[in-house]
Amino acid sequence: MDEEESLNRAIHEEVALFPYNANWPSMYEAERGRLLRLFPDDFLAIEHFGSTAVPGLSAKPIIDILAGVDSISRADELMEPLCHAKYTTSMEFNASLVGRRWLMQWAEGRRTHHLHLVVYGGQEWKRRLAFRDIHRANTELAEQYEQNKGLWAAEFKSDRGGYTAAKSDFVREALKRATT
């Protein structure tokens, strides 16, 4: 499979959940180290978040990385250099985002990493880490999330946007309950 075909397959990859893989944290650490070597002064912090960051939780096998920058304009400046460092992105998709930028890494027709650039310490930074942390601390909530994700993955197998949208109400409710 050539590079273009691999990218096209990764972009259109169906939503599929896999059982927790104990290698996910080391995959995150390897990519975090690579990013820090390539961009030693650009990120204020880098965190593993999303379902692959919650031990025991099934997930799409894509390592979600949260990279904190000092401003969205700095995130915009990093887009091209990150694309030269084995990431790709959709400028059209990023234009629709508020308060973050998104990039993807892929191999052999599958997504491997999603890199989310957000303002360090800002609302998006806090929200994404809070959602990870409440699932690490509350196994009952994590189990409920896993069950729902299975239903959403089946319903939106060929619609990543639909899958993500379906999760949004659960995310909002979980964060609301955690702060009350």
TrEMBL record:
Q: Does the keyword Transcription regulation apply?
A: no
SUPFAM superfamilies found in the cross-reference section: Nucleotidyltransferase (SSF81301)
Which Pfam families does the record cross-reference, listed alphabetically? GrpB
Q: State one molecular function term (GO).
A: transferase activity
User: What keywords is this UniProt entry annotated with?
Assistant: Transferase
Q: Does the keyword Transferase apply?
A: yes
Specify the protein name: GrpB-like predicted nucleotidyltransferase (UPF0157 family)
- Which superkingdom heads the taxonomic lineage of this protein's source? Bacteria
Alphabetized InterPro entries for the sequence: GrpB/CoaE, NT_sf
